[in-house]
């Protein structure tokens, strides 16, 4: 595949993800997986899981972090240079952010005029269950079907879950989970 064609494919895929990814990064995960793992096969499911884990712990929205890494990985894995791979990161990050930027610009221009409109309120009310479903799908996708889920992972998950319910600092939980993973594995 030619480099320009790869950039176009990456742009279209991540533009679609950005356009239909209501509910934020976690709701976008099933869309990202479908496009990059199953449809285009730019990365493997294990690489996708690693990207999700890394994207959750780095600053910024998970969808942007994932897009940046996947853009780099897809171009680099196709045999192109590091510079071309960095441009692939930029293409994916731009593509995933353009739809939300355009939509928010449009919505902000008209929202205050129509914020009490019953049709607008009904549409927003209808989107909520879809967002919850997409976030739940992302969680189930990460739990099911991956070969890295074993009893040690469940121990770490359970401990972090219980600590988060007790309102333990999330950054501390990430660090402790990393240390536990290092020790157990």
Concise description?
By secondary structure, the protein is mostly helical. The protein is built from 8 helices and no strands. Helix content is 82%, strand content 0%.
Report the total helices. Answer: 8
Share of helix, binned: over 70%
What structural category arises from helix and sheet content? mainly alpha
Number of DSSP E strands: 0
Instruction: Give start-end ranges of low-pLDDT stretches.
Output: none
State the distance separating the first and last CA atoms.
39 Å
Radius of gyration, Cα only, in angstroms? 19 Å
How much is the average pLDDT? 85
What would the principal axes of the Cα set say about the shape? flat
Give the SSE string: HHHHHHHH
Strand content: under 5%
Largest sheet: none
Describe the structure.
This protein has eight helices and no strands. 82% of the residues lie in helices and 0% in strands. With 185 residues, it is mainly α. The longest helix has 33 residues, at 82-114.
Describe the secondary structure blueprint for this structure.
Blueprint lengths: L2 H18 L4 H15 L5 H13 L4 H16 L4 H33 L3 H26 L7 H15 L4 H15 L1
Give descriptors for this structure:
single chain; 185 residues; mainly alpha; 82% helix
């Amino acid at each position: 595949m030619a480099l320009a064609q790869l950039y176009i494919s990456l742009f279209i895929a991540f533009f679609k993800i950005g356009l239909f990814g209501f509910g934020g990064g976690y709701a976008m995960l099933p869309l990202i997986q479908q496009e990059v793992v199953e449809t285009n096969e730019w990365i493997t499911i294990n690489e996708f899981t690693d990207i999700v884990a890394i994207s959750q712990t780095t600053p910024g929205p998970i969808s942007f972090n994932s897009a940046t890494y996947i853009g780099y990985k897809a171009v680099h894995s196709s045999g192109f240079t590091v510079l071309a791979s960095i441009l692939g990161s930029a293409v994916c990050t731009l593509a995933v952010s353009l739809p939300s930027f355009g939509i928010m610009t449009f919505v902000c221009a008209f929202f205050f005029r129509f914020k009490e409109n019953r049709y607008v309120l009904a549409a927003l009310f209808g989107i909520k269950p879809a967002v919850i479903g997409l976030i739940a799908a992302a969680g189930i996708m990460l739990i099911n079907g991956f070969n890295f889920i074993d009893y040690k992972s469940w121990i770490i998950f359970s401990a972090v879950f219980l600590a988060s319910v007790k309102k333990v600092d999330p950054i501390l939980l990430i660090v402790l989970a990393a240390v536990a993973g290092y020790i157990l594995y």
